[in-house]
Amino acid sequence: MKKGRIKMMLSVFVAVAMLLSLVGCGGNTTATEAPKQDEKTVFTFALGGDVVSFDPAFAYDFTSNPVVNQVTEGLLRYNSNSELEPCLAERYENPDPVTYIYHLRKNVTFHDGTPMTADDVIFSMERIRDPQTAAYSAFMFENVDTIEKLDDYTVKVTLSKPDALYQYTVATTAGHVISKAYYEANKETFGKPDGGTMGTGAYKYVEWKTGSEVILEKNEAYWDSENMPSFDKIVYKVIPEGATIVTGLKTGQIDATIGIPVDLLPLVQEMENLSVKTAGSFSFDNFSFNTQKAPFDDVNVRKAISSAYNSQKIIDEIVKDTGFYSPAVPVPPSMWTFGRDQWDNFIQNFEGYGYDMARAQEFLAQSSVPNGFTATLVTDGDPIRLNACLELKESVAQLGINLEIEKVSREELTTRLMGGERNYDMITGNFGADFPDPSANLVPLFHSKFTVDGGSNFPNYKNPEVDRLLDEQMLLTDSNKRAELMIEAVNIIAEDVPCIMIDFYNNIYVSDKNIEGYDIAPLWYWDGFVKQLRAVE
Amino acid sequence: MTTFVIRRLVQIILVLMVVSVIIFSMAHLAPGDPALIMMGGKQSSPEVLENVRNKYHLNDPLIKQYTYWMTGVLRGDLGESYKMKQSVTDMIIGRLPLTIQLAAMSMFFTLLLAVPLGILAAVKKSTIVDHVATSLALVCLSSPVFLTGIMLILVFSYKLQWLPAFGIGNSVAENFKFMLLPSIALSLNMIALNMKMTRGSMIEIMDTQYIKTARSKGMPQNTVILKHGLKNAIIPILTVSSLQIGFLMVGTVLVEVTFGIGGLGSLIINAVKSSDYPVVQGTVLFMVTVFLLINLIVDILYAVIDPRIKY
Amino acid sequence: MECKIDLKAIELEHKQRRKRLFKTSFLNNYLVVAATIILIVIILLAIFAPLIAPHNPDQLNLSNSLKGISRENFFGTDRQGRDIFSRILFGARTTLLGAVFVVIISNVIGIPLGLISGYYGGKIDNLVMRMCDIILAFPALLLAFVIVAVFGRNFTNSVIALGVVYVPMIARLVRSVTLVEKEKIYVEAARAIGISDQSIIFKHILVNCTSPILIQVTIDMAYSVLDLAAMSFLGLGVQPPQADWGYMLSEGREYLMLSPNVTFAAGFSIMITVICFNLFSDGLQVFLDPQQRRV
Do B164 and B48 share a structural domain? Predict the structure, then answer.
C-alpha cells in the first residue's frame, strides 16, 4: 500500500515535470526564432485593431490607413511640413478658384503591370463620390461638380463653388487611385480578404487574415525610384491589447507601432532598444454640451461647468506626454499652417473660462438652475476621456450638479456623436481634421449644417453669425483674410462655451532603434511611410 | 435509432426557427440607427444615409427584412457586417479554426489532468492526497477563467518569459505555443467537474465484486485500476465532458478576449460592443446550431459506445 | 395512545438525526464551517461597508495613483488614486446584491413555471419545457450577451439577463420534484377532500421542493457571482465610478504591467466568495439531502 502511494506521487511528479518541460520547450523555440538583425528584411508593425477594408472608400481610420496607404496612393501627398507635394500627378494647376487640372505621371503601373491612366483616376474619384458607394470620405467631394478627362494623362476637376479644403482631398484615401479593370473584374470581393486591392504603391497586397494579420510585399516595379522600399515584406499584427504591443516591442517581435496607451508610454520610454518620436496633431478630446437642451441651453450653466473643470490636473496626471494643454478652441498650433502670427497673437491674449471654482459658483448662481441639477455624461472607456469625466463629475458635485456617467463602447459613442437626434446631455468625443487647415476642425464642429444625421457638430451648436463667418472664409483664397474670419468666429464660439477642451494629442511613433527614416507627422494617417524606412546598425 | 435521429433533427430545426426569430427581433429592437452604424461614425450626408438604408432594405417592414435574412441564411449567406464590409459567413469561417483549436486543446488538457487526478483521488480516497486534489479542483472551479488567464500570463509570460502573453502564430503548429496558456486557463476551469466524476465513478467501480476478485487474485494494483476500473468509468466521464460543451463555448469567448486571440469569441464580443448586428445575429445563430448538433452527436455516440442505451 | 407515542418517538428520532447530520455535514467538516464563517463575514462587510471603509470608494486622488500597500491604503490605490480596500468593500455590495437578484429573478419565474408544468402536465408542461429548450439552446452566457447587447449595457440589464438564463435550470428542477410529489398519497388525499389545486401546489408540493431549491440557490449564487464578474469583465456590466469586482478586474488588467494590486484584490475576492458558496452548498447538500449524498 505504501509503495503504491509513493508510486502514485512519483507518477504525478513525472506528469508535472513533463508538462513543465513542454512549457519550457515552447520558450526555447521563441528564442531560436527571433530574427537576426543583419538579415532584416521583414518589417513588423502592430495595429491596435483590425483593418476595416482595403477599399479606399472605407479605409478611413487609424488602423486601416497605415496599411492601405502603402498599397494605394493619391494624386498628391503631404510632406513632413503638412504641405502638398506631387505623387501620382507630377504637377497640378489651379487656374481659377473652381478649376483644378492634374497632369499624371506616365511611367506609373499598377501591381499587375497595367499602366495607370486618367480613366483609372476618374473612375476611382467618381466611385467615392457616388452616394451609392456610401464611402466614408464622400463628403470631401461635396463641392465637386464634374471630373473630366482632358487626355489619357490629364484630369480636370471643376467645383460648383470655391472650396478652400478641396485641394487636400486628392492626398487622402478619398483620392487613392485603384485599377478600374481590376475593380470591375472583382466587384464582389474588392477590398475584402479574397479580392484585396490593386494600387500603385510601394507594397503589394498579399494576404489578410482577418482579426490577426496582414501581409504586404515589396513592389519591385515601384515608380518612385527615389523612394524604393528597403524591406521586402511588411507584416501587420492585429493586437488589441496595449500591454502585448509593449511586450512585443520589448522582445523585438514587433518593430514599430503608432499610438501607445497613455499608461504604458512611460514603460516604452524607458526601454533602451526603442526610439520614441513625437509630433503634434490636429486631434483633440473634449466635452460637448448639448446646447439645445435645458439646462445646457443656458450659457451660464456652460460657463459654470467649464470653470469647474481642472484641465491642467488631467494633463499632468493622466495625459502626460501623450498630449498637451488646450485652451478653449480646438485649433492646435500645428494647424496654424497659415496666418500663424494672427493665431499666435490671438491665443496669447485669450482668456476663456478656465479653472476657477469661485467663478464657477458665480456663474451657476446667475443661471436658470442656481441650486444644481442632475444630468448624464456619455463617454467611452478611453482612459483620458473616462478619467476626465470622473474628475469633472467630482468637481461639479461641489456646485450641486450631479453628473451621472454613462459609459458606452467606442462605436456607440461615435454613433451618438454623429446621430441627428443628439440624444445626450453632455458627451465626450474626439475629433481630428483630415486637412492641414483650421477650418477643417471648426466647420464640422460648429457649423449648424453639421447638426443633422451624419454630422459632427457634437455640441448641437447653432449660431447664425458663426455659420456666416465660416461659410465666408471657405470661399476665399486670401489666407490672411481667412485666418481673420476664423479667429472672429472662434472668439464668438469661445464666449458661447459649447464645449470644454480636454487635451490636444501628440502623435507618437515607437520603433526599434535600428530602424530609421520616418519622423512622424501630424498627418501620418495619409502617409505611406514604410517605403522610407531603412534598417541601420 | 434512425427515427430517433430524425425526430431530434426535426426538433432542432424547430428550435432554430424560434431562435432565429428571437435573435432577429432582438437585433432590430436595439437602439441606434443601423445606417449610422454602417457609416462608422464618419461624416456623411442624410442623402448617403438614405441610400444606405435602401441598399440594406432597412426601410422595409420587419417581416420582409426577416425573410431576406432567412433566405440568405438558408443559402449559407449570413449577411454583411456593418463595420467590416465583409460577408459574415466568411468572417466566421476565417476565425473558426482558431476557436476549434483552442477548444480541442482545452478539452485535451482537461481530460489529461482531470482523469489521472480523479483516479488518484479515488484510489487514495479520504487521504491527504484526495483532500488536496479535491480542494485544488474546487479552487480552479471557483477562479474566473479570465483571472486564471491573467495569473498565467503574469507568471509564464512576464516573469519567466517562457511563453507569449497574447496573440497567435502563423500555423497550427505555431499556434500550439500561443494557445498553451489560454487552453490551460480554460481547462483548469473545467477540471473540477470531470475530476469529481472520475473520482466518483472510480470509487463506485473499485467497490464492485469483480474488481475485488481481481485484486484478491493478486493482480497488480495499476493493472486493476487502468484495465478494469477506468474502462468502466469512461461513460460517466464522457457524459460530464459533453455537458460542458456549452461551458466550453462560452469559455472560449472569455479566454479569447483575455488573451487577444482573434477567434469566434472575440468576433462576437466586438460585434456586441460595436452594435454590428449582422455579425451578432450570424455568429449567435451559428453557435446555437453547432451547440445543438454537438449535443445530438453526443447522444448518438452513447448508443454506439454503450449497447445498453437504446433510443 | 400508542399511535401518539410513536409519533413523538419518530419526531424525537428525527430531531436527533438532524442534529447528527448537522454535525457530520457542517460541524465536523472544518472547511464547511470556515466557508460559512467567511461568507458571513463577507456579507457583514458588504452590509456595513459605509461604516468600515476607511475612504470614500469613488474619491479621486490622481496624484496618489497606483500606490503600494500601506497603512493608509491596505491594498494600495488604483490608477485614479482611489483606495482599493474601500472599493473592494463597496464592490462586495454590488456583486453580492447583483447575485442575489439574479437568484431571486430566476426563482420567482422558475418555481411557479416548474410547479405548474409538473403538476398539470399536458399542453402547459409541453409549452413550458419547449420554452426552456429554447433558452437552453444558447450555450450558457451567450443569451445574456445578446440580451445585454440589445437592451443596453448596464448592471441592471446584465442581472435581468442572467436571471432569465437561469430560469430553465430551476424550472426543470422544480418540475422533476413536482412530478414525484404529485403521485404521493398526501396529494391524492388533499385532492379528495376538495383542497384547491392552487393550495396543493403552493402549500404542499412547494414545501417539499424546498430542500433541492435551497441547494440550487446556493450553487446559483456561486455561479452568478462568476457570471456577473464575466459580464462586467467584458464591459457589459456596471457604470463607472461604481465599484464592482468584475469591472475592477478588467480595469486593473489595463495597467497590470504597472501594478497588479487591483486585479489581485478583485480577483481573489471573487475567487474566495465563490469557493465559500461552493463549500457551503456542499455542506447544505449533505445536510438537507443525505440520500443523494455524492461519494
Answer: no
